[in-house]
Each structure stands twice: as C-alpha cells, then as structure tokens.
Amino acid sequence: MRSFEQRIETLGLAARHEQDCGAERGAERLAGGVYHSVAAGRRVSLLKVLQSTHCSGQCHYCAIRASRDVARAALSPDEMARHFLDLRRAGVVEGLFLSSGIHGRPDRAMERMIATAEVVRRSGFRGYVHLKILPGTSDAAVERAVTLADRVSVNLEAPTDAALARLSPGKQLEGQILGPLRSAARIARQQGKRAAVTTQFVVGAAGETDAELLGRATALYDERLVSRCYFSPFAPPADGPFAGMTPAPRLRMVRLYQADWLLRYYGFSLREIPLGPAGLLDQYSDPKTVWARGHPAEFPVEVNRAARAELLRVPGIGPAGADRIVRARRSARVRSPGDLGSLGVRWRVAAPYLTFDGRRFRSSVAQPELPGIEPRAGS
Q1: C-alpha dihedral (368, 301, 214, 271), degrees to nearest 10
Q2: Sequence-distant (≥ 6) Cβ neighbours of residue 308 within 8 angstroms
Q3: Per residue in 243-259, pLDDT tens?
C-alpha cells in the first residue's frame, strides 16, 4: 500500500502539463501537488493534481495512458478535500485545480471530482476552484461542475478530427469533446459567469498546423464557447507510438500565444494573421511585426491623430500602451520616442512605424524580441 505522500506526489506530477493561471510563466512544482505560477503580475499557488491516474484511454502523448507501466494512484473525495483544506489553512495554496484519468465511464471520474469540490465548498471555502470537464461527460455532470467551480475547462487536444485521431485514437471531437464544451459554455452564461470556460491544445504531436490551431481557436471565440485557449508543447513520452519524436519548439508556443492575442485583443482577423505556405507562423519574428513589414502602405502612423485601432497595429504598442497614448495626447502632444517611453511603450520598436507631428525618427533601432509565453499588455 503506497503512502498518502507517495500518492499525492504521483497525482501532482501527473498534472504538470495542465495549464491554468495565465501563461504559466515561471511555473514551479513543489511537493504535495502544489504549483507556483505567475498570473497578472503576482504569484499564484494552487493545489494542481489529478484525482486519479488510473485511465482506460490510449492517448499516445499521455504519460498515464492505459498501456504504460507507470505508478497509479488515486485519492477519495474526502482525502483530496482534506489535503487541500489543510494546505489552505496553512497558507500554502490559494486555490484548487482538479483533473483526472478516465477509468470506465467518464461520469464516474467526474463524480469523484465533483464530490471533492462539494466537500471543499461545504467547508466554507469560496476561493478559486477549477474543474476539468472530461470527454464524454453528461450534461448533468457538466452543470454541477460549472455550478461549483469558478472555471472549468475541456481539452480539445487537437484542432481537427484527423489530428485528434492521430493523437488520441477512439476520441470523437464533435460528440465527446465539443458537446461537453458547448454545454459548459451555455450553462456558464445562464449562471452569469464570465471567463469561466477554457480549453487546451497539445501542439506538435499530430502534424497540426498553426493555421488549423488558430482557425479552431477563432471558431471557439466566435461561438463564445471559451474565454481563452492554451497551447501546451508536446513532450515525447519515453515509450509508445510517439517515443523518439521531436519535442515541440517552445518558441512555437510563443508565436501561437502572440497570434492568439492579436485575435482577442488587437482587432486582427484570422485572415490577417501572417502564415507561411505550410500554414505555420514565422518563429523568428512576432506575427504583428511580420504583418507590419508586409503592409508598408499602412505606415507610418501619426501618433497624435491615429485612432486606438490604428495604434494597435503598430509593433511595440499594445492595448495598455494605446490607451495611455490616447489619454496623454488630450493634454499634450506626443513629440518624440522618449515621450512614448515615459508612457511605458516599447519606443525603440514602435518609433520606426510612427510620425510625431509629421516628423520621423528613422534612427531608432528595434530591440530584439525576448522569448516569453505571451506578449506583454503593452507590446
């Protein structure tokens, strides 16, 4: 019989690829299933675990697929809830993120996660709870999960039926995954919850293109099914059909997140995202800069007259920076790149695309872009 500590460590390690809390930049896994990550500029501590690593599925990329000889572990709802509440009382964690392997009926696994959340809520905890909606979950279980949780997520894993068949044989995108996702989004809207549903893609394992990923993400946003999409880089397992494959380049995730931000916050349409002939983003330049270089007729933009939407097309200026420029020029002219710098704008990047009362500053040199998971709000 494995000890409680051994089981919770196994369950925490198995959850390491589940994404939550922004970009997971600087995520750090501690003992006992505790993860520290950075979201909205502050550190967030979560108990992020699987309820069970027992699974009947054969997803080729998954570390706990049924055919693998790995440690299996599970906690009862009471055990999981008690562990979380102990950590919460000790000030170690702020919230709970719970997923699970599927052994048998999906609703059986969901019932155990829901029961954990019910115990946590009955204790008086009103903080952050995130529950993963498993493929094939019934509408009744989805409704209960949405009612208990601040956020739920349904992993699409792949953007197309063909890619999903290569990644997770036996899963059906429309019925098993998109069905529960649509139910979760509908129920969240009925309950008045904002930003309550997210999804995640595994990138780099099934031959999917960036065009397919961004196309699916756009369709999800247009249908108001999710508040955001996460892109998880494929890491080849030690054995099985995907063993020995090349890991997904982390820089590919950077470009996907940047393109995703252009779609969500910058007013770009899918057809404006600069994709190469193979349907992939340029990994050496951010997509907004690639778009700007391909549309010289759109520049320069006069910083003192441009509408906010025009400013958002300028490399180096993001939503926060555009808002600061619009506010600042109500009382004073923006006369030089230095003025942009005082507004928190990356002026070395932006200045070559702007005029300042008709004057250009061509000597400015764009700073090299530093890789990250997502662009900053002012970029």
Answers
A1: -130
A2: 322, 323, 326
A3: 889 999 999 999 999 99
pLDDT at 377 (0 to 100): 41
Any idea what the CATH number is for the domain that residue 115 is in? 3.20.20.70
Confirm whether 261 is domain-assigned. Answer: no
Q: What is the DSSP letter of 207?
A: -
- The answer as to whether 263 is a domain residue is no
Residue 100: name the closest of 69, 73, 139 by CA: 73
- C-alpha–C-alpha distance, residues 285 and 312, integer Å: 17
Report the alpha-carbon distance of residue 347 to residue 370 in Å, rounded: 15
Beta bridge partners of 50: 99
Domain count, the chain: 1
The rounded percent of the chain whose pLDDT value lies above 90 is: 75
CA triplet 267, 248, 269: central angle to 5 degrees?
Answer: 15
DSSP label of 330: T
pTM for the structure as a whole: 0.89
Q: What CA–CA distance (Å, rounded) separates 26 from 36?
A: 8
Rounded Cα gap, residues 120 and 215, in angstroms:
38
Q: Residue 87's closest CA among 140, 34, 158, 155? A: 34
In a domain, 243, yes or no: yes
Q: Which domain holds residue 38?
A: 4-248
At residue 163, the pLDDT reads 95
List C-alpha distances in Å: 334 to 287, 311, 317, 337, 362. 26, 13, 14, 8, 16
Give the separation between CA 287 and CA 272, rounded to whole angstroms: 10
Which strands make up the sheet holding 151-153, listed edge to edge? 25-29, 34-39, 42-50, 95-99, 128-132, 151-153, 197-203, 228-233
Residue 22 CA to its chain's centroid (Å): 6
| Both tokens assigned to 302 | 């006069």
In a domain, 320, yes or no: no
Three-state secondary-structure class, residue 39 = strand
Residue ranges of the chain with per-residue pLDDT less than 50: 22-26, 364-379
